[in-house]
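Same chain as my last thread, 517 residues:
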Amino acid sequence: MPLTVVEIVRSPRHCSRWLALTTITVFLLLAATIAQATETLRIPFSSDISTLDPDNGFEVAGLSVLDSLYEGLVEYEPGSTRIVGLLATSWVVSKDGLTYTFRLREGVKFHDGTLMDASAVVTSLDRRRLGKLLQNYTLANVRAINALDASTVVISLSKPQPSFLDTLASPWGPKVISPTPLNEHDKGDGATDWLTDHAVGTGPFTLGEFKRGERYSIDRNANYWGHKPYFSKVEFPVVPDIGQQILKLRAGEIDAIPTNYPFAQLASLPDNLEITTAPSMTQFDAFEKPGSELDNLAVRKAVLTAVNPALWADDAFGHYAHVSQSLYPNAMFVPARPLIFPTDMEAAKDAIAKRGPVALRIGLYSANPSYGRIADLLIAQLATIGVQATSYVMPPGSAYAMKGDPSAPDLLLIIASPDAAHPDNQAKAFLTTGAPLNLYGRKVPEADAIVDEASTLTELCRRDELYEKAARMYFDNGTAIPLVDVDDVVVHVKGLKNLGLRPVFPRGTIDFATVER
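reply #2:
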């Protein structure tokens, strides 16, 4: 008869068996702990998730979570701007560019077990298009959405829009939500309140914890239609301070710092850490206030000479920064004639001396440490030609109230990154009259007309020629100064791979469906 643990302990002659049993037990517990740690990925958030409603927010902090829970019809392939199918397996565009017919992937289920079909796609896209939601503008050109059959969706546009597939592939593009919770939790608000901290999509992960101010987590979707993620769980502790994130990474309490690791420290990482880097559409621009000293052409040329990013980009970002070639990110668009900054510093000094005392105030869009680093370098550069410059971090939201404000800064340092990879998305977000992020309200109607013409073209050479011409006009008319494009840089424990970084996505947006160890 086998002995119980108590009997073994009480019997001296069975002491060796007790030790063996204890050793095995400890080993099994340790192995289980190691396995659990291996299957759990820990990524810190610097700020809270504002909402998980894919149609009613511009989530940045939790975008990687949102895109792990929900899927759209198409997506950008990791590492590129190539558009590939996701919930749609194929699509056909009519010759007039007005009709897009999508064939849906069959057998896909939502997290609640209901079937994803054409009617569900129509319900989700119409919710964004017709609801009073923050993202409804993305489908403003859509005239109708119909289910031809259970596996076919037809989207009809009001006018041709060659950038439409990019709009669908955008990280903030329309996602497909299960109709069941949309109906059950609609309290006259389109279920927006419920979807703030709940999610029922088709993605490779389901929502685990949602504890605002503390932590979040997602769990591997056991019934996912595609390739199963490597990690069974991803945890997101909220750690606002980058210094604390670095300490936790070095102590093994987290597995990666997705963004804002100090560039000056990247060359001296501990042996257990490494870097994954990829091209990004993160472009730092300096937008110009109408009516400032920069309206004087001689002063502006002198300032351009001093702030030439070739003089300071390496000091700010090492080899992870690239001088911007135009007002479009380098990863989006390669101009035939890149912008060239003037280089005659003596002429710049003379121009400022002739003008008299010149002072510039630089507003920083946020407390992002990269803004401060760039501002310090710009201030030093401007001082060499006799311009007295200062900088300050703008209060949250104040950048959106600068139009016509005489107290607004002379320059606004901001990341001008598009929400999709088409040049039209950049121009109509930051440059054209009335663009939501044309924060000083500059107007260059001749350039706007060229953008409108370019936006209808599918012939790439002519299209790009027009977009480049318009960008040059916006630059020459003082809309903005493109400075540097900065790579995506993720610092992580050794062994992590296939992070799935995409140029269009905000820096540090890891694809948890592809990352593995």
